[in-house]
Specification:
By secondary structure, this protein is an alpha+beta fold. It has twelve helices and eleven strands. The longest helix is centred in the middle third of the chain and has 23 residues. The C terminus is likely disordered. This is DNA-binding protein.
């Protein structure tokens, strides 16, 4: 991955993986449900299944260790199992303690766990743009070795009932999401966007400069020089990879930094404007409102009002 830019983005947009349900079943089965969360993930702990969702022409075949990410889908259908008899209709366990998974046999049962990816509004925009409607990360790929291990340890915490398991599950969900994205960028053709930009080796030096000194008035010539490219070649490659010109990306990065500062500190708007390279508080506020849709102070108050509800919610 390009330096540690992915960690920067994870911290900045407050990405959290939250486990919300799962089931273990033997024999023919089918599970249908509506989806409310913008980003959902499903991991096939053991067994095999076929997943279908709206807006996708062909179902995907989930094998042991595979993970599917659903981006702004409204429903899904998952089916699996072998043997005679009618398909059993499965309603996934919702929230803890995942009692339906305790005692599951990984050698004989189909075991599926699911969760949502919770992030700030800014993070939602970034991740939703970076992922396709249905992403499929295959555990069989060489790049997914750590993903398989993380999924195994997560499941052991879910069914183990040990002291501190709730904390461990939250941490492993975070690691699972990170490993999913790591494996995905190695397995798939990424659309233009920040995720593709983070792993572009040619653009990494310029990206590092913008992230290290976001308040500096960077000129295109300086960024092209550090990337060892001509001004024209650099601008064209950046737009192709990121989907936006370099200075547009820099402005959006500044706005993400501003949103984090406004959510988590009492920094004065004028001080923040200077720190991020704006000539005046008015210029910063205008740029912020254009990007975010409201003034910096209104954003701060709204985020602080919404924070208790967000930290306690687990969408499905």
């Amino acid at each position: 991955m390009g330096g540690d830019h992915l960690s920067e983005v994870f911290d900045l947009v407050e990405v959290r993986g939250l486990l919300s349900g799962g089931f273990a079943v033997r024999g023919p089965w089918v599970s249908r449900r509506a989806i409310e969360a913008p980003l959902k993930f499903f991991a096939m702990v053991s067994g095999r299944a076929r997943l279908t969702t709206d807006g996708v022409d062909e179902p995907i075949e989930l094998e042991p260790g595979d993970v599917a990410i659903l981006n702004n889908r409204s429903w899904l259908r998952v089916e699996g199992g072998t043997g005679d008899g009618p398909r059993r209709e499965i309603t996934p366990e919702a929230n803890f303690p995942f009692s339906g998974l305790i005692g599951a046999d990984r050698d004989a049962d189909d075991i599926l766990i699911g969760g949502c990816i919770d992030l700030s509004a800014a993070g939602g925009t970034l991740l939703l743009q970076a992922l396709p409607p249905l992403g499929h990360v295959r555990a069989s790929a060489a790049s997914a070795i750590n993903l398989r291990g993380t999924l195994h340890r997560l499941f052991e915490e879910v069914v183990g009932g040990r002291a501190g398991s709730a904390f461990a599950i939250r941490q492993y969900c975070q690691l699972l999401l990170l490993e999913v994205l790591r494996a995905y960028v190695d397995q798939a053709e990424l659309p233009p966007g920040w995720l593709r930009l983070l792993i572009d080796e040619r653009l990494r030096p310029a990206l590092s400069l913008m992230h290290a000194e976001p308040g500096r008035a960077w000129r295109l010539e300086e960024l092209a020089h550090v990337a060892a490219m001509s001004r024209t070649s650099f601008a064209e490659r950046f737009r192709t990879v990121a989907g936006v010109p370099p200075l547009t990306y820099l402005n959006r990065w500044r706005m993400l930094l501003a949103q984090r500062a406004l959510r988590g500190s009492d920094v004065r708007v004028g001080e923040l404007a200077v720190e991020l390279g704006y000539a005046s508080e008015s210029a910063f506020s205008t740029a912020f409102k254009r990007e975010v849709g409201e003034s910096p102070l209104r954003y701060r108050y709204r985020m602080r009002d919404e924070l208790p509800a967000r930290t306690g919610s687990v969408p499905v």
